[in-house]
Design brief:
By secondary structure, the protein is an all-alpha fold. The chain has two helices and no strands.
């Protein structure tokens, strides 16, 4: 997920806040009213996007150990299968044979 919306809305919120404080201090009433009315929705949107980003990061971190554990299990199982198939074939599998050839024995027909 891109963080562009959060950065964009945060920048707009900060800019609107600066405009609001500047217009209040400079006695620019109409500009202060407009920027003051747009500030609360921008703050709410900024907080919503921030909470959404934090929730996605927490979910990603929570999922990561489970996926790493699953990958390590499948890797260990595949290593066990390959070591047992090599041991069952006498340990003399040539490098030209594919990995699955030791698991399925083939019979050569005499001519």
């Amino acid at each position: 997920m891109s963080r562009r919306p959060l950065v964009f809305v945060s920048g707009l919120t900060f800019g609107d806040y600066l405009l609001w404080t500047w217009s209040l201090n400079g006695n620019r009433d109409v500009l202060a009213l407009v920027s003051g009315l747009t500030l609360p929705p921008l703050v709410l949107l900024c907080l919503w996007l921030l909470a959404l980003t934090v929730a996605r990061l927490v979910a990603r971190v929570a999922r990561r150990p489970a996926t790493l554990l699953a990958h390590s299990r499948t890797r260990k199982q595949s290593e066990r299968r390959s070591s047992t198939s090599v041991a069952a074939s006498g340990g003399n599998r040539s490098s030209a044979e594919p990995a699955g050839s030791a698991e399925t024995p083939t019979r050569k027909l005499a001519a």
